[in-house]
């Protein structure tokens, strides 16, 4: 692919080692993991090994991992499954205004079904206050769903502190870790998480594969009816090659986590430093927060999103204005609205740069030069 791909928060290229595993298994591991013959048993072993592998990376037990079709399904499974399982105990849910649309729209749908949702605010760094969570808790709160890290500005949320608060409450604690898994360490036992969502395509794995961690004893109603796969929790024949590829991608991501974090922090400093040297005006959204190392969200005064994205694309720099799930939408980023309020200039001129596999320092220098040139022209600087 020509151009510099700096949209790894949207999706990532498949790692060559992962692609090799995936391609080999597509033809060699064709048995149904529910079959009792040799081909089925071989598929079952690979499925069990993959489950144990990803479970170990988050401090979970293998039986607590449910493989799904991706992050959105995992989020929906957690939210709708909890609502249905616990509706007789209460109908109150707590979340934030900066969640991914897989969580936002699921909660909005539950509102239409008679559930009450408390939408917590965030500060200008995109961070939710644990004290706000504490204040919002009620006797009838059945679910608290707060992301581990934001996919647009990268802010890492205080889920450990929130987990401590919820230890004294019966509410189920779900975290959307799709952007965080493989980028920062997450241990479900240490944090006190009941449900956690993750996805393969964010960590150089294939698209269409994810998992939901369900702590033993956590109530959850399966979203579909069918066979007894995934311990009767997610019907449908398992995608064994995709699951094994996910496990390989997760293994690589966690083994290289520290090294990648250091490299991506260097990329951030290189990018902002080069833009400062160029003399153009810009600011870093969530610049004072602890953020994911691979996400850098910048505001360029005097420009607008559409022109920025089109001109950067023409210059061969592939970035986005936020969540890829809203590509083409004329609505402002709900994350930036939550951070800055309606009408803020950041809503009209912010771009997300996100780093990952295959990016070099030379790519960052070139991207910064081209970005400065585009911004200077559009803003008349």
TrEMBL record:
Keywords: Iron, Iron-sulfur, Metal-binding, Pyridoxal phosphate, Transferase. Pfam families: Aminotran_5. Its EC number is 2.8.1.7. Its cofactor is pyridoxal 5'-phosphate. Transmembrane segments: none annotated. SUPFAM superfamilies: PLP-dependent transferases. Residues 4-364 form the Aminotransferase class V domain. It catalyses: (sulfur carrier)-H + L-cysteine = (sulfur carrier)-SH + L-alanine. Belongs to the class-V pyridoxal-phosphate-dependent aminotransferase family. NifS/IscS subfamily. This is cysteine desulfurase. It comes from Bhargavaea changchunensis.
